[in-house]
Design brief:
Helix content of chain B: 25-40%
Oligomer: heterodimer
Shape of chain B: globular
Order of helices and strands of chain A: HEHEEEEE
Structural class of chain A: alpha+beta
Distance between the termini of chain A: 25 Å
Number of strands of chain B: 8
Number of helices of chain A: 2
Strand content of chain B: 15-25%
Number of strands of chain A: 6
Largest sheet of chain B: 7 strands, parallel
Strand order of the largest sheet of chain A: 2-1-6
Distance between the termini of chain B: 31 Å
Shape of chain A: elongated
Radius of gyration of chain B: 22 Å
Helix content of chain A: 25-40%
Chain lengths: 126, 266
Amino acid sequence: MHQNVENITWVFIMHEMSLCESVLQIIEQQAQAQQFHKVKTVWLEIGALSGVEPDAMRFSFEVVTNGSVADQAKLEIIHIPGQAWCMPCAREVFVEQLYDECPHCGSHQLQIVGGDQMRIKELEVE
Amino acid sequence: MCGICGCGEGHNHSHEEQHDHEHAHDSHGHSHAAEHSHAPGLTQARMVQIEQDILSKNNRYADENRRYLSERSILALNLVSSPGSGKTTLLTETIIRLKEELTIAVIEGDQQTARDADRIRATGVQALQINTGKGCHLDAHRVGHALQSLHPQLHSLLFIENVGNLVCPSAFDLGEAHKVVILSVTEGEDKPIKYPDMFHAADLMILNKTDLLPHLDFDSEQCIKYAKQVNPKIKVLSLSAKSGEGMENWLKWLRVELELQRIAYD
C-alpha cells in the first residue's frame, strides 16, 4: 500500500478507484486487441486541473489491478501543468488550481486550455 | 440485449468495436530486451501506445444519451451536491409547482435505498431508482439503461439526481444539458474552492435553505465570489425550497431551458 494513503480521505479514493477501473477496462480491451498477457508499466498523463490526486491514484491502481493483466505493473504518472487563456490579457498563463487568478492581471476570467486531461498514454507489455 | 448500447446481462459491450478508437494499433514496437533478463525465446517487452482518455468509454455513452435526449427534446439536468443540501426537497417542491404545466421524470441515484425515489413518486411523477452500491457517482452507461426503462416523454423535463458527493460526479458526463450544483447555506461558504471541480463543471449554482440565513454566519456574497472565481460563467440563484422564497426564478430558468431544448437545430 502506498505510504501516504492515510492522508487521503475516502471519498477521494473512491473517485480515483473508479478512474482506475476505467484504466483497467481499457488495458484489458487492449490486451485482447494487441495480444499481450502482462503489463509491466503504465504511463498516465494527469493534468494539474483534472481533479485527480496522484497518491490516491497509485493506491487505487494497486488495488484495482490486483490479479489482473496489470498485476504488479508500475504506474508512471506524467504531470501536465494547468494552462489557461486569460481574457483581459489575451494570453496563455500557467495556473495550479481552478480558482487561481491570472498571475499578470489578477483576473479570474480564465478559460482552461490545458492540464485538465487524464489519459492513458503508453504501456510496456509482454 | 438492450437497444441503446447492445450490452447483454454480463455487460459485454459488443458494439465497442464500432467506435473510433484513438489508439494506434501496433504502434512503435521497439523492444526493451536489453533491460530485462529474459532467457532467449521468451516473450520480450514491447511498448504499446494507447493515447486514450480514461473516461472515453463513459463519454461515448454520454454522447449516445445526449443524442437520445436531443432527438426527443428532453431537457436533462444533472443535479449534484453534497449529501444533505436539500436536493430531494428542492425536486419535490419543483415538481409540485410544475407538474400541471410540464411532463417531468426523475432518475434517482443513491448508493443504497429507494427513499428518495419514493419521495419523488409521492408527488405523482415517474421516478426510477439507480443504486450505485459502492460507486460514488452515476455514469453514462447506467443512465442510458435508465432512459430505456423510463422512456421519458417527448418535450419533457428529466431530472437526474446524482449521488450526494461533490467530488466524483463532476468528472462523469451523463449526456445532460447542464450540471446544476446545489449548495445549502449550512455548509460553509468555502465549498466552491474546496471542491472546485464540481463548481467548474456546473452551469448553475443554487444556494439553498436561505430561510436559515438569519441563524447562521454564512457569507453568501463571499460564497458566490468563490464560485465565480472557479467558474466565471456560473449563474447563481438563491432560494429556499422549504419556504418557497426565490423559487420563481428557478422555475423561470427551467421553463426557458426547456424552451431552448425544443429548438430543432440542424
